[in-house]
User: Fold these one by one.
Assistant:
Number 1:
Amino acid sequence: MASLITCPHCGVRPKEEFTIRGDASPVRPAPEAKFAAWDAYVHLRDNVRGRMAEHWQHSGGCRRWLVVERDTFTHAVHSVVDAAEFARARAAKPGRAKTSKAAPAKPAKAASKGRGKA
Ligand SMILES: [Zn+2]
C-alpha cells in the first residue's frame, strides 16, 4: 500500500512527492544565546521511535514546507499542517514546543528463532 500525505494545499499525494528535512521540534535560539544552546540546536536530535513532528517539503507539488506528525515505527501519518501555521501556533504556546513526542510505540515482537533446538 502506498504511503499518502495530505498536503493542506494540494490534497492527498504520494509520499514520493515530498522531501524530509527532519525533526520539527528544535527552536532556534536567540542570536546572543550561549554556544551550548547553538550547538544543541544545530547538532543534537532525538532518535524517536514513535510519534514525532517532522519538516517535509512538498517538493513535487506546491513546494511549501509542512509539519508532518507521523509514527516513525509504523509510518502512520497523524496530521499535516503548513510549517508557517505550526510556527505561529508554537509561538503562541512556547511551552508546548515538544508535545509531538508522545509515548514510544510498542517494540516489535522478536522474530521466530527457527525450527527449535539445535
Ligand atoms: Zn502541496
Number 2:
Amino acid sequence: MGNTLANSLITTSLTASLLLSGCSGTGNFSSKGVSPRGGFTGANHYNYASYYQGGQQTRVAPARAYQSVPVSAPAPIVPRKSPLALLAEVRVHKDYLPKSARGRRGQSSMRPRYITIHSTQNWSKGADPWRHSLALKRSKLGSLSWHYTTDQNVAVQHLPTNVTGRHADLNGPGNKYSIGIEMCEHRGNSRIRTIDRTAKLAAYLMYKYSIPLSKVVPHYHWPRYGMNPPHKNCPHFLLDNGKPGRKWRGFQAKVKYYHDLITTQGPSYVSR
Ligand SMILES: [Zn+2]
C-alpha cells in the first residue's frame, strides 16, 4: 500500500513536471511506475492532441490560431518585357522533320540543360532557314538534325525542344542535353541581325527551361572524341582564333541583356 502510494506520487509529480516543461513525450519514459500512457492519458493540455500508435507517440500539429491573420505577400516581379513578347520578336515558325526523316532516327526524349550555338558555314545563295528545313526534312544532311535555324528574318524550328538532335558531339552530352541553334551565313543575310535574333531566342529558352547563362555554349564547348580537332571552330564568327574570347563574351552579354529584360524588375511593362 505504501509502495503504491509512493509510485502514485512519483507518477503524479513526473507527469506534472513533464506537462509543465512541455516535453514532447518522445523521451525515455521507461522509469518504473511512469508509463508514457499513464503520464499522458487524457492529458490534452497542449494545443496538440497526443495519441499512441504501436507504442510510439505521434504529435499532431496544433490548430493554427493565427491562420486568419493576413500575411502580405512580396510584390511580384514585373519584368520590363513579357517573355512571350520577346518570343514574338524572334518570329519562330515550326516546320518539324517528319518522324521518318533520317535526322529523327534513334532520337530520345530530352529535358534541355544547355543551349548550343552553331553557324551553318553554308554561304550558298538562298541557304536560309527554310532551305535548311527542306534539306533536313528530305534527309539531305545525313543523320544530322538540330532544333532551330535563324537568320535576319526568322527562326525556323525543326524539332520539338523535348527531343534530342544530332548537331554537337556524336553521342556526347551536347547532343543528349542541348537545344541546337544554327545561324545562317548565306550571302546578303545580316550577321548582326541574325546574332540578335539568336540571342533573343536563347534568352527565351533560358527562361523557359531555367537554363543559366553559363550553359549557353558555342559548339566549340563540346569535344568530339575521335575527331581532329576535337573542338570545332563553331560558330566561327563568334570565336577568337577558334576559341571563345571577346566575341563570345559579347554574345553572352547580349543574351543576358534580353534575359534580364524578361526576368527582372523594370520601370515599364511592354507587351504586344
Ligand atoms: Zn556547329
Number 3:
Amino acid sequence: MSSPNVRSSQPIPQFASTRALPPLRVLDGGGPATNRVTGPVPRAGLHIVPQPVAEPAQPFLKWVGGKRRLLDQLVPLLPTGRLRYAEPFLGGGAMFFRLWSLGRLESALLTDASADVVNACNVLRDDVDALVGRLRAHAHAYLPADADARAAYFYAVRDRHPSLVPMDAVERAARMVFLNRTCFNGLWRENRRGLFNAPHGRYDAPTLCPEDRLRAAARALDAATVARADFRSLPNLCRAHGVTFAYLDPPYHPVSVTSAFNAYSGGAFAATAQAELADTCRALDRAGVRWMLSNSDCDFVRGLYRGFDIRTVQAARAVNCKGDRRGTVAEVVVRNY
Ligand SMILES: C[S@@+](CC[C@H](N)C(=O)[O-])C[C@H]1O[C@@H](n2cnc3c(N)ncnc32)[C@H](O)[C@@H]1O
C-alpha cells in the first residue's frame, strides 16, 4: 500500500486493488446475466489513502443516457465523506470516474449486465498497453479509408460478434471501443440475441485510440472490482463487500412511445423490471445501505418510490426525443437518506 506521505510521479491509488479476489461470478460472453452470484464472495481488503489523485479520469466509452452532463447536479446529492461504493448499472461509469477523481472512494464494486462493458473495463485495467495496440491497429485500417471502405470495415468488425466467432478478451474490448466510437451516435445497442446492431456513423475524424483517457481510466479501475451481474443480486453483493452506498442509473422507464430507448443489453427493461428494481432498493434500505437512483420523471416511477426522498434535476433531452423539442427535461433522483 502506498504511504500517503510518499511523493511519486505515479498517481497514488485511493484504495488497494481488489484484483486478488476471486471473480464474483464467471459468465460466458453471450449468456444471460442472472440474479445469482456463484460461490462465496469475500470482503475486499480496504486501505484508506486520503490523498487526491493526480489526474482526473473520465468515461472511455460514449454512453447514451450516461450521466456525465448531470454530475454537477448529482454529486451534491450524495452522502458526504468517503464511500464504500457500488454502481450496478455501470455503462460508461460517469459517476464512478468522477468520484474516483474527487478522491471520494474507499472501495468500488462496479457491475453491469453487459458482458462487453465488463470485459472492456477488465481488459483496460489489466492490460491497457495491449488494448491501445489493438485500437491503433483499428485506427490504422479505418481512418485512411474512404467512406465506403470505412463502412465495410465497420460492418466486418460488427459482424465478428464474440458469441459467434472465438476472440480473446483484448480483441473483444478493442472491438467494443472501436464500434462505440464509429457507430451512429455512439449508441451501444444490442438486439434480443445480445448482438450489437447499431449502424455505422459518419464521423470525419473519430478518435479511435484516446490514449490519455484510456490510461487515466485504467488507473481509476485499478482499484475497483468489476463483474457481470444482474441488479437483483445487489443486496447480496453489498453485504459481501461491505458496501455502504449505491448509485443506481437503470435504463429509464419511457415517458412516451418515442422515448422507449431502454434496450441496452439484449432486451427491454420492462415495467416489471422497474418494479423489481424498486423492491431491490427497499431490500437495500432494510439492510442499511444508502442509495440514490436516477430515472425518468413520470407517475409510474414516482409511485414505485413513494415514501422516499424524490427530487428533480434538469437533463438535456435524450437523442430519441423529437428534434423540435430542444432544451431540458426533468429527471427524478430518489434517495433513501
Ligand atoms: C443508463 S445506462 C447506465 C449509464 C451510466 N450510468 C453512465 O453514466 O454511462 C444503464 C445500464 O444498465 C445496464 N443494464 C440493463 N439491464 C440490466 C440489468 N438487468 N442488470 C444490470 N445492468 C443492467 C445496461 O447494460 C446499461 O449499461
